[in-house]
Amino acid sequence: MSKTVMIVDDSASIRQVVSIALKGAGYQVIEACDGQDGLAKVSGQRVHLIISDVNMPKMDGISFVKELKKIPETKFIPVIMLTTESMQAKKQEGQAAGARAWVVKPFQPEQMIAAVSKLIMS
Fold first, then answer.
1. What is the CATH number for 74?
2. Distance of CA 35 to CAs 2, 8, 26, 32, 78, Å?
3. How many C-beta atoms surround the C-beta of residue 68 within 10 A?
4. Which residue ranges does the record assign to the Response regulatory domain (predicted)?
5. Per-residue pLDDT band at 122 (split at 50, 70, 90)
6. Tens-digit pLDDT profile for residues 13-55
7. Comparing C-alpha atoms, which of 38, 30, 45 is closest to residue 62?
8. How many domains does the chain have?
9. Is the pLDDT assigned to residue 87 strictly greater than 90?
10. SS3 for 93?
């Protein structure tokens, strides 16, 4: 049974790149265009991991993670933040919200897959 990963990013091209890498590694992929869309799509689904951008319209990644962690069914889903933000303060904010890993764009697909498989195993 393959694992499901949700990608939450307002950039269609980033979603596509991540999706191709994940599908190539055997994962099922659900795409969402912002935090609100992500929250709507995650409910009632079996999602094993979420990869989220930080800077998005409507609901940014950190707010999305905070909301996710309030919901009993989704609070234990590991989240990887995928972002252009490399500032330590943002990283700490993300970790405080509940993000488990931080990958800075531009990223290598192999690096992303390694982080995903490590978090899904744990």
1. 3.40.50.2300
2. 24, 7, 25, 8, 15
3. 25
4. 4-120
5. low
6. 999 999 999 999 999 999 999 999 999 999 888 999 999 999 9
7. 38
8. 1
9. no
10. helix
